[in-house]
Design brief:
mainly alpha
């Protein structure tokens, strides 16, 4: 017990010291590494949690925040804090035998929280201006557009929101893949791989989708535009969630109907095209999979037909 406590202190001190070096270099580079902290910091936190437990990781998290407070800016301190939270949430899921989808989704949600707080809620504190980003994007796209043609600001805002959501999803996947490779190399517990056909929407996603749809309906009825930007962000996140589960439903339906493989590509391309041109259709298909057992019933029929053909 004593050796375990000494080891946890030693490991924690080493990780905090290495973080201090990284943050010092980042400070000299004027915060150029801020965007990469979310990919780096969760990994040692995950290793520490698996080795010594979540309870002792709170001390490590406090030490990391203390080091960040001493050698970095308030903005970097925020990124460090959220990275530590992402690592601990991922570790909790891993220790409780959660699937890969939960692990990726948990990190993605933390990343989305960073985006919402830094780019919308406290944008002035972080020095972020969506108006300047829209202007920069307009100028960047001008060279590809016919002379005199400009894009609507709302469209460009939605493009930026989509880019933020894509980035958060990619960060969740990246942290998961790096953690898997590092943990496997260290011969530590790795997340179980779950087939896509067995992935079901957890309760938190069902609540989120239902809340967003109810809020959207309420704002449409009352014609309230005060929270339009926040709703646009939530609707974009919901679109991708529904798109993912809708895609699984479409794949299962194609297998159930025994559609020829060459024709399946057309259906899949049409579905992804609907993400851009018919988003409400994608949301409807996704909600069918999220709130019903239709995919489960189709999978049972597929298995039943396969057994009969043997």
């Amino acid at each position: 017990m004593k050796n375990s406590r000494v080891n946890s202190i030693t490991y924690g001190a080493m990780m905090a010291a290495l973080l201090g070096v990284l943050l010092f270099v980042n400070r000299q580079l004027a915060g150029a590494l801020d965007l990469y902290l979310f990919w780096i910091i969760p990994i040692p936190v995950i290793i520490y949690c698996l080795k010594f437990g979540i309870n002792r990781a709170y001390v490590l998290g406090a030490a990391m925040l203390g080091v960040a407070f001493l050698v970095s800016t308030p903005v970097t301190l925020f990124y460090v804090a959220m990275s530590v939270v992402a690592g601990m949430v991922y570790s909790w899921g891993l220790l409780n035998n959660k699937g890969a989808f939960f692990l990726i989704a948990s990190v993605t949600m933390v990343s989305l929280l960073i985006v919402i707080l830094s780019e919308y809620v406290f944008a002035a504190f972080f020095g972020y201006s969506i108006a300047e980003d829209i202007k920069a994007l307009q100028e960047a796209l001008a060279s590809f557009m016919p002379a005199g043609m400009t894009l609507d600001d709302n469209l460009l805002r939605n493009m930026l929101i989509l880019a933020s959501v894509f980035t958060s999803i990619m960060e969740g996947i990246l942290v998961h893949l790096v953690a898997f490779l590092v943990l496997k190399r260290l011969k530590m517990p790795t997340p179980a791989m779950v087939p896509l056909s067995e992935i079901r929407a957890p309760l938190v996603i069902k609540i989120f989708v239902a809340f967003t749809l109810i809020w959207q309906t309420y704002l449409m009825i009352t014609k309230n535009t005060q929270y339009a930007n926040t709703l646009a962000m939530l609707m974009t996140v919901m679109l991708f969630m529904c798109g993912f589960f809708g895609y699984l439903l479409v794949l299962t339906w194609l297998e159930w109907k025994k559609v020829p493989r060459n024709s399946r590509i057309i259906y899949i391309l049409l579905f992804f095209g609907a993400l851009l041109f018919m988003p409400m259709l994608v949301i409807m298909v996704g909600c069918i999979d999220i709130f019903t057992d239709m995919r489960v019933l189709m999978m049972k029929e597929i298995v039943k037909n396969g057994q009969q053909n043997q």
